[in-house]
Write a structure and sequence with these properties.
alpha+beta, two-stranded antiparallel sheet, 6 helices, 43% helix
Length: 155
């Protein structure tokens, strides 16, 4: 796949926008983080690198990344959205710890196969899906009770 910074630069140019050093820094940090970040979390990392960059610039750059197809806004039951880099067409699901908020990406071919079989059984054509499993991670189970994250679990 083409480098995300190059794709972003092309998207910016195609839309008559400027590819500023601030935007490039935000995009670089976002893709190097390897995490699902909130705008606030990304802003804190960016601000440590360049204190002149404002939170609105981070927010607008994340929106541009989503518009360019390079990032995806995710809602895992928290009050704020998290943003996930989209670097290829691979699919994954998520395991979310309701105690600490840890987000683990998982891919299981057997689950994917079972979903296809289920859709076929009901004459249903899948176009996409999203699976999020909530529970308690090993670390939280071993440390005992602690302050819970505000993660709403849909039932």
């Amino acid at each position: 796949m083409q480098d995300p910074l190059d794709i972003f630069a092309d998207y910016i140019a195609d839309n008559g926008l400027k590819n500023t050093p601030q935007r490039r820094l935000i995009v670089d940090i976002f893709f190097k983080s390897g995490k699902h970040l909130t705008t606030e979390e990304l802003y804190n990392v960016v601000r440590a690198e360049d204190s002149s960059i404002g939170q609105a610039t981070v927010y607008r750059t994340l929106k541009l990344l989503c518009d360019a197809g390079l990032a995806k806004e995710q809602h895992f039951g928290e009050a704020t959205a998290r943003y996930e880099p989209i670097e290829d067409d691979s699919h994954h699901d998520h395991l979310i710890c309701t105690s600490c908020g840890k987000n683990q990406e998982v891919m299981d071919e057997e689950i994917e196969r079972l979903q296809e079989e289920l859709a076929k059984r009901y004459s249903f054509t899948l176009t996409s899906h999203r699976m999020i499993l909530y529970g308690i991670c090993d670390e939280c189970r071993n440390q005992g009770p602690k302050k819970k994250k505000n993660i709403a679990v849909a039932e």
